[in-house]
Amino acid sequence: MIQWIETLDSDPRGREFNSLATAVVHTAAQVCKNKKIFLKHLEKPSKHCGKEIGDKNASLCATGIYNYGKTALNTFRRTEKLSFRPKKLQRDIRFPNLCKNYDVTPRFVNFRVHNPLFTHTQTYRSWCRVLLNREITVQTKKETSPTVKLNDNISQLKTTLSSLDFICIFRIITNNVNNKLRRVDSIHNKKLLNLGINVQKKVNKDKVIFNFSDRILTEEQKGILSLGLDYCLPPTKATFHLFYLHFDKLCKNLKNCNIYKNSFNNVTYDITIIANTTFKKFSRQVKQTCDSEAILSPLKTLKNDKTILITKPDKGRGVVILNSCDYKQKILNILSDHTKFKRITTEVSTHLLYLEVKLKLLRIIKTSVNESTYNFLMTSGSIPGLLYGLPKVHKPNIPLRLIISSIGTFNYNTAKFLVPIISPLTTNQYKIENSTTFVNEITSLTFQQAITMVLRPYGRFTHCMYTPDVTLILLLMSHFMTLLMSHL
Hints:
The chain is about 55% helix and about 5% strand. It has helices at about 1-10, 15-45, 60-65, 70-100, 120-140, 145-160, 165-195, 205-210, 220-225, 240-255, 265-285, 290-305, 325-335, 350-360, 370-375, 410-420, 435-445, 470-485; strands at about 210, 310, 320-325, 385-390, 400-405, 455-460, 460. Helix 4 (about 70-100) runs antiparallel to helix 6. The relative contact order is 0.05.
């Protein structure tokens, strides 16, 4: 701007405009300078802000807003308080609700009693819950009251100040309110942590939810899915007969103990009181600690969408969402490989009956095992294996890892019978349980010179050494399976 004015000064035709432009530049510079000083001290008001504007000790905050009068300053203060109050109120409602959901009693609802031991009774806790519910109700009624006053003060401030001043003032109000809210959150989190509730420990939704479908998830749906596929709602009620059955079994077992022979009636009386008290306490908590409808409603929406499929990843924990058509096409592509899969030509029920009949070869061991074991091995009413795929989210194009569930198949019980027989024979000095054990083993080893470990992969397995016992059992199993398959 200054260079442009100097250029006009050299041109005689621009000398008249030069004086006008110079005045505009100096005026703008002075306004910006005053505004900078005004905003700087308005963000950090001093303790003298309540004094009269004409006072020499008045803060620069009041002196800066002198052009708009003391009324504008009071409107600014009211707007800041009214902006902070509803957001503070939301946090004040959230705090007792969290205490209620986690079934803990905050200190502000505790009251003094004559006997301190009375604070551990159920009656005292029930009254604390009543006070906590009443506090939540009272705070909820206040939630909508400051909104109308806030809108009126914002409108008044907007009409009093210029557009630029209003934008700057409103930004300062927002910053001050956010700073206060951060302090409130810090205080509440500290109180909740003292009560055993850690609300700051949150799950990164994007790291546990892998959405490869065309559906766009809402934040509410992401929050529910981030809880995991194994998350379940707490029970709403206890079954009367199943609840008291455990206490009845306990009394029956104690009856056979000699130490309770003389005082058995007193023991059963105490157990009865504990059972009744526990059942009544659980019955009062029929309403779940969390809102079931808030959790079930987003899940029902996802369940009714037939275009998506929700499953778990191949490795690790998480939730994977795929298009149903893509999932089915990947499964069909894998099954189309005739070198690994073969289509049966008969009916499924006929084929299953054929396989069950072949298991009657196990009659030769009937004399070697007891009757219950023999009945366990002889299968009837079996089902075919269920095939499904788990997506490999760490690989491109999201391939599937096929898994066949053998539960309920014709040879499932036979395999289950052989596992405890073979497992002890596989335990030896060359076996490693898991990756953690492997790391501990190699870190504890010391070598005088560098060595190289080589694994020769063959399919999904590696060549390994077997002890003579393991080799013998594997040969026997191989011979047994060969004999069995020859008759199928």
